[in-house]
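Standup notes
- DV: blocked on the single-chain target, sequence here:
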Amino acid sequence: MEEWQRMLAEADTELAAQWQKIQEAHTELTTMSATLRSADRSVEATVDAQGDLTGVRFLGDKHRTLTAGQLAASVLEAVTGARAQVVARMEERLASVTGQGRLPTWEQIQSFDFSAFAEPLQAENIVPEELRDRTDPARRKERHA
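- DV (later): unblocked, structure below
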């Protein structure tokens, strides 16, 4: 096997693995939620992946003794804290997929010579669509159904 074919096979395997990680991260990110209690432990709030409030619970009877302003502050604290947790978990999860620092800069992307990269593929009559099919099994099924 020629060197470039070996490199292409390795890249193909790596792309397939990365695609799987991205799909798993997408599922996790879209279903993520967080629940947080206020510091006074009177309120518990749950938010979804978009930061939308999906649940509020008043814990015990403490909320009955709070003024309207105090209760509002406790609710706001719990919601804000839960949103911050979702954002932090999303950032952590995205960093695990992107491998922070490994993404190319805009200048690197603009200066990349795609034609030189594709020359060996063209010489072997390999169509880019076929490479995409290799890394995305669902796409392959759609195109060959």
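- Follow-up: Residues 30 and 49 are 6 Å apart (CA to CA).
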